[in-house]
Amino acid sequence: MxxxxxxxxxxxxxxxxxRDAATMATAVLLRPDLWLTALGELRRMAPxxxxxxxxxxxxxxxxxxxxxxxxxxxxxxAAPSRADVVSFLEWCRATAATSPPRPGGLG
Length: 107
What we know:
Structural class: mainly alpha
Helix content: 40-55%
Oligomer: single chain
C-alpha cells in the first residue's frame, strides 16, 4: 500500500538519509581505516552527474536509499546504526579485496 501525500522528486534527498547523515558520518570519522572504503561506496551510490542537480551533493537516489533500507531493515524509513554502518563498510572492504577487478578499472 502506497502512503498518501505527495511523492518527493526522484533526486530528492531522502528524509531518513538527511536525518541519519550525522550518524553515518560520525561512524566513518571514528574509523580512519574505513575512509577510503566509505568514499568508494559513496561514489557507487551517487547518481551519475550528481553535481548538476540540487542539493549538489553525492547523495543516493531516493528510490535506491529506500530499497537499501527495506532490504536491510524491512522499512523504507529505517535508520542504520553506527555499528551497522561500520559493519557494512568492513564487509565492503573485505569483499573488494577478494573480488576480481571491474572492467575499466572502476573498483
